[in-house]
């Protein structure tokens, strides 16, 4: 039995050595661009704080709690309370690492960097990634939602942030604080529930081919998400069209309407002067036509007018018309009376208004080959109804779908595997 014991011990040692030899990346800091082109900013802190040159470590002042310091840029130079400094970058940081620096009355963890640029100062928040997520998660998803949905959001946001490092390198930071990257509001928006979701998933990221993924997410897909190439033109293997569970989203199904004159005017404002709108060419939902993606997104729409014809992408039409998503269809309708007046008695001269609520008459579309052409005559005061589903780009994780799955008992890993194809969830640090 002695040799067996030694063999077992040897195997345990090999396993332990394997575990010990596995190295993880350290938690990175992330630089968040808060403001650009600023001529002056006011900084303070809830602790004693310092202003230094991060390159030379020269100190330009140590200030007591709550002191307000004005930093300006004029004549291509930075000033600290009207004192000119030679530095091109200033660092503002509380002495206590748990302190918060305030910039223009908003509080931030970590340190604030103020860079002199040709067109004014750029203000950057440099902080650990996990602390960044304390703000991003509650900004991107309501903290009243199930904790497993919030955990899924934390992993997606962490993966997205790591993937997006240096996205704004030309401007001197990694990511912006807006929807172009992820919404970041500083420490004022933090709460215990969102922080719990971040802490419970600390360091976990979504990987494809051993690399962090572009973990795109959106509010609501309207029943199915999109393939990446059908929205952005680029095939991404883990961003595939999948069934969604967002039926309880307020934007699952929506409707807006325009007059033909409205549409002509909006097109003209964006440089597409087609004259009087005469027809719109777009297939119906689930038509299988080439002008739609497998997930239902519109690829192109043709607007024909008295002066010109233009073909626009679904994304462009969404932008011009202010639609919630690119999953939409169009119909031309003639409004019918919602009330009619009925004589109470013959020759009495008295009428009563009765609600009839007749549905609007839909003008039949013309089929030419595989084309669905919606004709507009403008002779009967037509209206153009745009019916749509979902909100956002509809690629990757649906937040309302994640909420529904969490309410059904799914854990955050299962939620993420529902929306991202052939990925793994691993500790990055």
Structure description:
With 429 residues, this protein is an alpha+beta fold. The protein contains nine helices and 29 strands. The protein has helices spanning 2-21, 129-140, 147-163, 192-200, 228-232, 260-269, 314-321, 399-407, 412-419; strands at 29-38, 40-45, 49-52, 59-63, 69-74, 77-80, 83-85, 89-94, 101-103, 106-108, 111-115, 121-128, 175-176, 204-208, 211-212, 217-218, 253-258, 277-281, 300-305, 309-313, 328-334, 339-343, 351-355, 361-362, 366-368, 371-375, 383-389, 397-398, 424-427. The strands form seven sheets. It has a seven-stranded mixed β-sheet. A six-stranded antiparallel β-sheet has the order 7-6-5-2-9-10, with no helix packed on it. Helix 3 (147-163) packs across helix 4 (192-200). It starts with a helix and ends with a strand. The model is unreliable at 1-23 (pLDDT under 50).
Task: Give keywords.
elongated; 429 residues; 29 strands; alpha+beta; seven-stranded mixed β-sheet; disordered N terminus
Task: Outline the secondary-structure elements.
Layout: H1 2-21, E1 29-38, E2 40-45, E3 49-52, E4 59-63, E5 69-74, E6 77-80, E7 83-85, E8 89-94, E9 101-103, E10 106-108, E11 111-115, E12 121-128, H2 129-140, H3 147-163, E13 175-176, H4 192-200, E14 204-208, E15 211-212, E16 217-218, H5 228-232, E17 253-258, H6 260-269, E18 277-281, E19 300-305, E20 309-313, H7 314-321, E21 328-334, E22 339-343, E23 351-355, E24 361-362, E25 366-368, E26 371-375, E27 383-389, E28 397-398, H8 399-407, H9 412-419, E29 424-427
Parallel strand pairs: 1-13, 16-28
Antiparallel strand pairs: 1-12, 2-5, 2-9, 3-4, 3-8, 5-6, 6-7, 8-11, 9-10, 11-12, 14-15, 14-29, 17-27, 18-19, 18-26, 19-20, 21-24, 21-27, 22-23, 25-26
Helix pairs in contact: 2-3, 2-4, 3-4, 3-8, 3-9
